[in-house]
Amino acid sequence: MIKFSRFSFNERLKNINDMASCDFDLCIIGGGITGAGTARDAASRGMKVCLIEQNDFASGTSSRSSKLIHGGIRYLENLEFGLVFEALNERHILFDIAPHLVHPLSFVLPVYKGGRVGMFKMGLGMWLYDTLALLHTPKFHERLSANGTMNKVPQLREDGLLGSYMYSDAYMDDDRLVIETLRSAHRYGGKLANYIKAGHGIFDEGGRLKALEAEDKISGKKVTIKAKHFVSTVGPWTDQFAESLFEWKKILRPSKGIHLTLSRERLPLQEAVVMATDKDSRIIFGIPRHDMVIVGTTDTDFKESPETVHSTKDDVSYLLRIVDGYFPEAKITEGDIIASYSGVRPLVADGSSTESKTSREHVILHTQRNVTFVAGGKYTTYRRMARDIVEVVLKEEFSLEERVKYARNQTREVINPIITPEKLSEALAQSYMWAAEYGLTEAETLKLAERHGFEALNILEEGERAGIHRPWEMEALFASHNTMCFHLKDFMLRRTPLFLAKRDHGFVLLDAITEVFKKERGWSELQVEEEKQLYKDHLKFEMGWR
Predict the structure, then answer these.
(1) CA 423 – CA 425 distance, rounded (Å)
(2) Residues facing 108 on adjacent strands
(3) Distance CA 189, CA 182 (A)
(4) Residues 98-121: pLDDT tens digits?
(5) DSSP 3-state assignment of 163?
(6) Is pTM, for the whole model, over 0.85?
(7) How many other C-beta atoms are found inside a 10 Å radius of the C-beta of residue 494?
(8) 221 CB contacts (<8 Å, ≥6 apart)?
(9) Contacts by 281-286 with C-beta closer than 8 Å and gap 24+?
């Protein structure tokens, strides 16, 4: 059995105790991908780092993305060449450091008569896209005729089709990428905890933040966290959090995005399809991912508090109209939708005329109050963004000697030390042999290997010792021990694809999975029912449009 570092509820309690007794170099508020990346970067340099998240890790924007790692083909139209170049370079790095979470995917971009961009101009964009990737692309683009396009995607509308371009990008597990990044930060010595809510700031005589009061939302315990510097990575809550500390001029233009999930049987795409909307210059994707197809996203201004975001009937109708325009013979209706999910992008206001034209560039605001705020940015560039954040903080707040000491990060190393691209391939090749040994089907052990590489062996062995013999229950045990998973809904929503991919949202498995957490947490029957209700409440809230 391969040994790995625990990242469990028990570690959470130890970390909270350490937060109360240590003086940190850096305290990070916000446990999405930006906070996770910053914690990993800083901790890998040897800095003393803590991170707190008021809810579950990745429970905000970071689990509600299009689940793509991409350069952003549409940003070429906005002439954001630097952003595209940076994103394509980071895509190449993520293939190497997170091979079980980031996977190459082909995209088909059909071109129709009267469209916003013709075949010639689109072809120039494709060459530029591959060039900006510095040839580090899974496969170079190719031009397809109308017939070739229909052979590749027979479900497409044929009327008016001129042809298409096929190019490469990637899809990923966004929530698990956050968790794995946090596990890596933990291995480097970071002290991390979810369900810790930041409270009042404690300032010195010069008005600089020197400590932050926080509360454990599970135990009610109060803790005062002292740090040399504080970093806010709370995404769409940036303005709210800043206003809770001191006088602040709002910087965000929050944008709402929703996605729908469909069965691959109803829309059997093998490649992702890019659907351009000429009226509002948006791009909608149809993305095949495991057993489902994700359709999205919308892009509309959102002025309410981020935790209130949810899909509406208008949002759903908008996406269905676009799907029907591209795949009329599929006759997709509301009844075909398995799930919807929604999030708020923390875009920085730049005076753009529309939400879709607002830049995705990240902004780092270092203040004289000893807090650095981060907003904007693309998921794909989180590692680069984290590096920029830490280097700004080192330059502004640390001595020359400390800057030299903490100069080198290790974020080009694999996120999980036992899952390199080569080891993942080896695990996939061996997975069929595990089936007979652990009483599972070859398809089940292959899926475990795809999701976890050789760490699947830990899952299988721990499950066997606990008397658990079904994959999702094994995953529940693993999540409890290694992802700081506390609530049942955290597992169903952010450790697995059950909510999004299963027609019943995993309810047929709910009792068995809950039993694993009941034993791990010592839940009473009343707590078990409360946990189930929390999951049901989320489903009702998110999909209230039905």
Answers:
(1) 5
(2) 166, 273
(3) 11
(4) 999 999 999 999 999 977 777 888
(5) strand
(6) yes
(7) 25
(8) 16, 215
(9) 281/77, 281/116, 281/354, 281/356, 281/357, 282/356, 283/73, 283/74, 284/319, 284/322, 284/323, 285/66, 285/68, 285/107, 286/323, 286/326, 286/327
